[in-house]
Design a protein that fits this description.
single chain, alpha/beta, L-arginine/glycine Amidinotransferase, Chain A, three-stranded mixed β-sheet, 16 helices, about 20% strand, globular, binds N~2~-(3-carboxypropanoyl)-L-arginine
Length: about 450
């Protein structure tokens, strides 16, 4: 008998060093906004407002903490030495790019934090977590250790939750977490089909691959995660992303497809072998028929899909059908806005569209779906997890007050070496682990 389960969404709280450093080759927004002045306070408040709106609608909403940045241990490991201020000064003088990488607030995009398999799918019937090594980008490759600590602190009880270390940090096992992983199912508590989408086969040089931009996720990484999580072959589908899409700026599958329940909402250029992918899902999905909501290039050109982040939306169950939570940019691009109006008129599974303003994050290539990690939990697991990170009215109030007190309204590249910034961040994060009841998770706290 399937247990009752919900999908909880854990959004990354935007960190105090949110900035635009142009660190992600292949991510069009990150490159085009390089060196713009950011507003960390606005970014964090936009993220919290999104969480609050969804929590108010009755969705289970959690918060994952930002990481300590600039990350002094990373700078030390690269040979900068002396006091923290000496290190910041030397890094700012000698290598502003390294300092920028060690200062990115990129942990806000928790769709990349980990891959999570619900207990209904796994061999030992526990929820499995593997933090993503994010080895494709240096600034993101330093996330997984603290991410792992935060997840272990929140999902601590080993009788319900299993935690794996991230995969080896090399390009052959490049893993970007849930951004390339979608689960289709009849109901959250039923065994589902886990769709792993990869950009490249690492150990086959002849296999199709993008020509311009890097493929961040490999088949080998996806297969390793499926093995670690104890997923049966009959419940797993591996699909190659269309290299053409990667070269157009689709650096993760969640920039071109999103699934929920029995519904897969995707662009016709999402997969290399569309028909095979759909057939493989159909043959494995039990208890429901796959609803494939396909968007053609004629309806929405690939370029508009990337610019609007139409597919980087959250697809959520409501009592009246599914709701698509889209970024505001979707209403600024004519083809996309028109498409959304048509979509809700259709008799399909998506019955409403809601717009969220996450512009500060969008300018670095992160829409509503990038900002959240989905964790399906049955009633026992929900009870067993740490509740201090679940958004209530009171926690929302506390976090907004905390952001107002600690965050700057302007940050540019020249500010990253400011020793005051590091002090502000540590003070803020020390208070935050207290607010969220997480214990010590940061290097500076250990
Ligand atoms: N699609 C998903 N799930 N996530 C979006 C991640 C955006 C992130 N941007 C950045 O890391 C840019 C940082 C900078 O340039 O300052 C990235 O490219 O990894």
């Amino acid at each position: 008998m399937a247990k009752h389960a919900v999908e909880a969404n854990f959004d990354g709280l935007v960190g105090p060093t949110h900035n635009y450093a142009g660190l992600s080759w292949g991510n069009v927004a990150s490159k085009s906004n390089v060196r713009s002045v950011s507003n960390p306070k606005e970014a964090a408040l936009q993220g919290l407002a999104k969480m609050k709106r969804l929590a108010d609608r009755g969705f289970v909403q959690g918060v994952l903490p930002p990481h300590e940045r600039p990350h002094i241990p990373t700078l030390r490991a690269l040979g900068f030495s002396g006091s923290d201020s000496d290190i910041l000064r030397a890094a700012a003088d000698q290598s502003p790019s390294i300092l920028a990488a060690a200062s990115s607030a990129s942990t806000m995009w928790t769709a990349n934090a980990a891959t999570v398999s619900p207990s209904a799918d796994t061999a030992d019937h526990r929820v499995h977590f593997t933090p993503a090594n994010l080895s494709a980008k240096f600034h993101r490759s330093i996330e997984h250790r603290v991410t792992g600590r935060a997840l272990k602190s929140i999902f601590a009880d080993e009788s319900w939750f299993a935690h794996h270390p991230s995969l080896p940090s090399v390009s052959q096992f490049g893993d970007e977490g849930a951004a390339n992983h979608t689960r289709l199912c009849a109901g959250y508590g039923e065994p589902g089909v886990e769709l792993f989408v990869y950009g490249q086969i690492a150990f086959n040089e002849k296999a199709p691959a993008p020509k311009l931009y890097p493929a961040r996720q490999t088949l080998e990484a996806s297969q390793a995660i499926a093995r670690l999580h104890g997923l049966k072959d009959s419940h797993v589908v591996f699909a190659q992303q269309n290299p053409e899409a990667i070269d157009a700026g689709v650096f993760h599958n969640d920039v071109i497809a999103v699934g929920n329940g029995n519904t897969l909402f995707y662009h016709e250029l999402a997969f290399l072998e569309e028909e095979t992918v759909l057939a493989n899902i159909r043959s494995r999905l039990t208890g429901a028929e796959l609803e494939a909501v396909r968007v053609s290039s004629e309806q929405v050109p690939l370029e508009d899909a990337v610019a609007s982040y139409l597919f980087n939306s959250q697809l959520l169950n409501t009592p009246d059908g599914m709701m698509l939570a889209v970024p505001g940019e979707c209403r600024e691009i004519a083809s996309v806005s028109r498409y959304l109006d048509e979509l809700v008129q259709d008799a399909g599974p998506i019955t409403s569209v809601e717009v969220f303003d996450v512009k500060q994050s969008m300018r670095n290539g992160g829409g509503p779906a990038c900002l959240r990690l989905r964790v399906v939990l049955n009633d026992d697991e929900l009870k067993a997890m740490h509740h201090g990170v679940l958004l209530t009215d009171a926690l929302y109030e506390r976090l907004t007050t905390w952001v107002e007190a600690h965050y700057r309204e302007e940050l540019s590249q020249g500010d990253l070496g400011d020793p005051m910034l590091l002090e502000e961040v540590r003070k803020a994060l020390d208070e935050l682990t207290g607010i969220l009841g997480l214990g010590s998770i940061y290097d500076f706290q250990l």
